Records
---
Amino acid sequence: MMMMRRREGEKIMIGSDIVIHITQIGRNRVRIGIDAPRDLTIVAEEVRQVAEANTAAAGTSHAAVLELLGRLQIRRP
Amino acid sequence: MPRVETRHFGSKDYSEDSVIYMPCGMPGFESETTFLLLQVPEQYPLVYMQSSRTADLCFVALPVFTVDPQYKIELSLEDGLLLGVGRSPRIGTEVLCLTLVAIDGSEVRVNLLAPILVNLQTRTAAQCINAEPDYSHQHTFLPAVEAISA
């Protein structure tokens, strides 16, 4: 992986039409702006992970759910 | 009473107060913006999140405290504004907090990174990425001894 040091206000160029702007650096977060072609999908890593988890959840069978229920020992309120 | 076609229960009557509205949909399901929360008394504490638009789309969820009684949520500013709550809403009184369940073979995984939050007053809902660190989108759930209901 390529590593690069940047300060607040500086930019990174990727190819000729993608620009990463380092707009704000906080204590443990960085705010960045991205200029890129509109047809390029840009999402945070977590959003993609959540989309994949949602697809897996949507595919869960009812039989598997009922089997899970049998394993839960619930104390009702 | 309105009726909906469901994935698991055929055609089912529902009341308007079981409807939740997700203005942004969910990652991977952005066009699904209205769901019904269905519960079957014998299947407590499972919550079925049935799409009102797509009969074949139904998520299974658990109240988050069933999985992790110590669960904490911190919302992004945007999610707080969308839901009409603060950054740390009170789970159970201010918002309903559900974690989606995915089962693959004997593996049961729950998404603690991005629970479904529902404003209990307005029924507005969103799948929110928790800003609290250390929660996983595929937390292994071992319903071993006792799950405490929320």
---
Amino acid sequence: MIIEGNNVNRSYDEEVDVVIIGSGCGGATVAKQLAAQGHSVLILEQGGYFTAQRGDLDQRSDNMLARIDGGRGLHTSVNSEIALMYGNCVGGASVHYWADSWRMPKDRCDAIAATGVTGHSYEELLPYFEQIEKDLNVHFAAPEYYNTMNLLFNKGAESLGWHTEPTPQARRGCVKSGHCYQGCSYDAKQSQLVTHIPAAIDAGARLMSDCHVETITRNSKGVATGVEAVFVDRASSRPNGHRLKVKAQIVVLAAGGYSSSVVWLRSKLPNGSGMVGKNFLCNPNTFLYGLYNQEIKLWENIPAATGTSAFRLATYKDGKYVEGGYLLHPNQLQPEFLAVTLPGFGEDHRKLVSQLPHIGSVVSWIDDELPGEISLDKNGDPEYHYQLRGVDELKARDSLKKQAQLLFATGAKEVIVPDTAGTRLQSLKEIDLFDTLPINDGNYLFGAPHPAGTLRMGNDPATSVVASNHEAHEVTNLFVTDPSVFPMQPSVDPSISIMAWSYVAAKEINTRLQEGLFK
Amino acid sequence: MSNFMLSRRGFLKTASGAALLLVGYQAAKIWLDGDDENYLPFLEGEVPQALSIKEFAVLSSVVQCIVGVASFATVSTAEARTAARIDLELLHQGGKLLQDIKDSLLVVEFGTYLEGHGKRFTQLSTEQQHRFLLNLKESSITLQRQVYSGLRFLTVFFYYSDERTWPTLGYQSPWQPIKFYEGGNRIENLPPLSTALKESSLIKEDSK
């Protein structure tokens, strides 16, 4: 049952086994697993419930940013360096994701294990990966799904000697509309909205949308006991006057990498390590445009049927950075966002956007290591502090060079940098400008689609927030199941990793519930 | 973390204050104490919801300058009601984004004095406004670039999300029919143009 808080006309008092804050890849997966095991589960989602069936996913960027995106798609870090990209709807960020579905690579699982985290090795995650891939129909795209930019990407990478590989796709019956980022109007993209949420509901879970959690409650011993929330009017996001109190044996915090630490801080939960909100990573993405003679129409078909992981891991020589530390993929933007991200204004900009069908693009997700921080301001509103620097800046600069190489190799007659200055390159001879091009301090807006790390997992309560079983070190019965717990980025699109880690969490929670330690 | 990073808001506030000091008491008095009448002609019948009349007027001028002069094939920013759509979005947003834009508009309107124009942004010619925004864009001062980038982002997004502009982009249309959203920011979400304000604008125009 889904109760849309937007329409409730009374307050609720609930008592359940498990209350889950958030309905994205983490929350929905845990809900599905625990409901299937017979536990009473209540999912609370701050955003609205929007479906293809009702025609809500209408492919207009303005409407869809307002409907499904956190901050209505317009929030940035305090220094305007990163654009916060996250979901605010049933299904979370998976509703706007590209459906790229990589397993966390074994080398990254090993690196995380080396930090002391247990129970999340590649071998332990493998059965979960396989189950998720089956449930979400993860597969390689057939040739008909390669749009012009995808084909150019493969051609360019081949000419440069870079290996490519098909990007695993979570889709079923894709109609190639190209409107993945606005939410799939055909229920073809296998987001949580059409997979784990319905599975959880079918298994008996309930979901309340438009429900803003104000605080996680605890008893006198500091044990989590439930949540207090308010229902909000969907159009205005303001409280509609009705409240919700939930008493639960287990509280699951899965509000996402941008929001879980905010819920924690607002709830004034213990922070003995001082690590809550710290270690904020976000996979900032760099991208360039190429102007071609041929038509590209970047907005058609699926975004990234292909890509290269040739540079996924950074390489070093004598301790100095050499290259890599990012994924490289074809890019996709709908026309309005292309217009926004193409530089300039006035007549110059008009001339540029008149060539939109001939604009191609590639994008990189930087495997960032130097973190920012999420904190609350004096009003209790979140502030996101992040600055690309050090080795992460070197990775970004190298990614821009590789992107320019690829664009020129595929026939781009000009490369356009989406920076404030509107830098343009006419040939590869100019590529070294990326060594010094100003990309900080508001000169370049990085997309930041994969927030992580602010409730870091680890075995030492002095340096981490949650234990390897996903339970908070300092708050018994509070579990965290979203990318906030990642000690480092997965180095690939994180959706499958979040789900697999949530399987681990669900198993731990189920064990706890079955042991009846709460009675 | 905050030790090595500037807060955009803090920066804007500081710079706004500095700008006010620099342009002097009279300019600040105009902005803070009234004189809406001077700005009414810029409203073209729109009724600001989040911004003040003066802020909306500055935004309208900025929007027009950023989009540029519409050719016969395109829709004007007034027809696209771009400033009004931004204003509505700011009403939804409230908080920091609204305050940032208010601060940015203040910097734009009076920052012209710092360049020796002796006039506010809304009093400059189209060419002078273009040059001023170009200077913001190319400024070595982070704040000025942020002001430019923030206003440009909103302007371009809301102008080019009007379907009447899509033919100029070579874009056909989405595949799905549009569905009205109560929390949206499209023209259909806007209040109707105010006849009274429109008439007031015309009167003001006539008396110029």
---
Amino acid sequence: MERTHEPVATQRYGSVARQNRNRILLGAGLISAGAIAMAAIPALGAGGYAVTLAYYGVFYIGLGQSWNLMSGLTGYLSVAHAGFLGIGAYSGVLLINAGQGLAVALGAAVAISAAAAFLVGLPSLRVNGLAFAFTTLFFLEICRLTVTLWTPVTGGGAGVYAHNLFDIEAMYYLMLGAALLITVIVLVVRHSQVGRELLAIREDERAAESIGINVTKLKLVTFTVSGALAGFVGAVHGAFLGFLLPISVFALELTLIAIALPLIGGMGTVTGPIFAGLAYSYLREQFQVQAPSLHLIMLGAAVVLVVIFMPTGVVPTATGWYRRLALRRATQ
Amino acid sequence: MQVLVDGILFGALLALAAAGLALIFGVMRIVNLAHGEFIAAGAFFGFFAIGSWSWNLWVALAAVLAAGALIGYVLQIVLLRSVVGEGPLRSLLLTFGLSMVLLGSLSFAFSGDVRSYEAPFAGSLSAWGLQVPRQSLFIAAIAVVLFFCLIGVLFWTKTGAGLRATAQHREAAASCGVNLARIDAIALAISISLVGAAGLLLSLRYVVRPEFGQPWLLQSIIVIVLGGMGSLYGAAAGGIAIGVAFTTLSYLYGSVIGQLVLYSAIFALLLVRPHGFAGAQA
């Protein structure tokens, strides 16, 4: 083979900027194809059961992607995402009950969760590793307890009903749109300068800082956006459920799902959480019929196996195998 | 005064549970998120062994200690070994996956039902105008004894010296001939057996459910944060302190506000002292 001084990737795909653009275009194409396929599900005459199942699929994708944006890219393990989801859900439902329209309620819910994420991120992003995971964990518990105690406004431990109920199909399209929006945000961020800066924080925060990245600001902005998106997902989910309990939305289980799906699919990748979210909602439903707690065992076992055998996640490992196979074929 | 006594008795058990968490954090720098589920597993064992099969309490306690040690040892060799010595992310995720598997298994096997049984040591002692349930006193006494057994092992055996050396400095300990893989496995074995025992003791007083370990994970984390991560005496002092604080707050304002105050305080503390209150190590 002829020796060259240019990196192979550049030879084959062109400059980094063009490579990024191509990846974003390719990703956007694939995602919109997938979204159109998902959007066709109710139109194909599927019943309420299939639509609900598909709804949970896109719900998990939206939740996982919102976590992925912050934690997948920066490596800061946020346990607070169910908190933002719950804040969004409660704000949405309470505003709807106060007579606001759905659009206003969703917008306000996003703003409130963004504010919450900003206020939590401001102090807690100063610490990292375990301390960050713990502060976000306690934040989630503080949210749950506060909502439980604040009975006059939130209905307390007895929960709150939404006065308006929305059509399941409409909610499905709304959640699909939310998941699509969040996925596209992750896609664009991932293949941009900002995304590389965030990945640099994940690899070595001090080194990232020393080459001039404004680490503090970048983390805070990303965390705020990530929390706001989780709040958006939560607001739609609250409208979908129509009934909220503190333990049903400020649930550690939802944070676990938000963490596990991107982790299994591939942290910081765009396709990973989509793959894992769809597979999880399908398998969960299959198992639910037989035994209601098997899905937890399955998800946990998948997490354990992935952490041990595929530290980067299923999708990157699979693409790695595919590339190596293609390379071997090309060189033979 | 009554509240203070209750708090100390509750705190002793909390200290035992937290000591298990602190030990492996000290040795391996791992926080075991499956902690709460092991407590729940111990409690279920207690429910069946003492409640249903009417085993002698001491036999059950010995069995849970032995089973916990075995499970911990195997778990370390099979699973946790691959994440020791890295950043916190992978070990958190791994133990978190483990906690999901355990929680799922417990719910699968025993459903979400609430269980409790008629425990030995009914009635209470009264002295100086204080009412002390004999059960609580007994639980706290066992917890204290187990805690001192742990201290004894750490300070008077060769393995204990290895554990302490590893906690101080892993690489230095390894270069002095400490077999790290073995020490890690022993640390997890001790940790799980203590935690299982704490669960068994809990089942004497409280109702048993698969999810009941989760608040214990949070409280144990609070204790080790307060006690300086990885410090056993810190865990003991922190356990008593949190036990008294929580019982007092619950008595005055109800348990929800008690938890809220405690969690908020620890949230603030973590921001100021990310490595814990008493500890100074990196």
---
Amino acid sequence: MVLFLFLITGIIIGYFNLVSKKVLNKAKSVPMISLVAILFLMGNKIGMSPQVFKNINSIGLKALFISLGSIMGSIIFMRIIIVKDKSIKERQEI
Amino acid sequence: MAYLLILTIALGILSGLYVFPVEMLQHIEQWISWGLWLMLFFVGIEIGQSKEAIKKLRVYGWKVILLPLSIGIGSVVGALAVSYFVKLPIWEAAAVGAGMGWYSLSGIILDQLHSTQLGTIAFLANVSRELLAILLIPIITKYTNNIIAIAPAGATSMDSTLPIIAKYTSPEITALAFISGAILTALIPFLVPFFIQFA
């Protein structure tokens, strides 16, 4: 819920230009820096969970194939829907 | 950029293993949510500035729901399709696939409702989905700069992979990616327990 609060606040600020372009330009690299920081911290979390490492060989392979299946499934179903639905197809060509 | 992000995670894992003590885990969780808030704030500004996209969203209306719908169905069907080959019972595979990249939540739910092993599989599968999405989004957009790029991201297209989607696609697709991710994020807490009740 807090996530939505930050996001919606950002959208309102962006939509009504409540913060000057100058300030926004200075903060340009903030989103990418915070992404790198989050990913570093997420790595730490993985490193700190022994259960993730214990069975990583047998379980990791299963997990990888499930994720590949889900990704392929999502891509295929989206392709089908985009082909079927002209409005979405036109939209991506804009 | 994707390689930098993967390297960052690898460094984080090493640091989690050898540098930071496990007692820091709670702080790390807190820092991650703060970082996410900050990031979402800026992503929000970016979406808000693309007024054209917001206008178009009003025009297309409910049809936007077709995007998360196809991603959701594809995630579960795709997981079911590989379940036989990895010797995972179908409902367990469906529940893992329904995590759609939200590894913390799906991992915890399946650990609680089923087993630690399935929780770990869900965690790893959805971590892997997020990492693969980070790798795939720049590759997909290289060949076709279109909405297909948001499919691998699943629910993460509203937060962790949104900056990457924003970088490699248009503000309009970024806005759609957020809406799709937000709808999926709202569905996951219901879908994962729904599928695992049959296991």
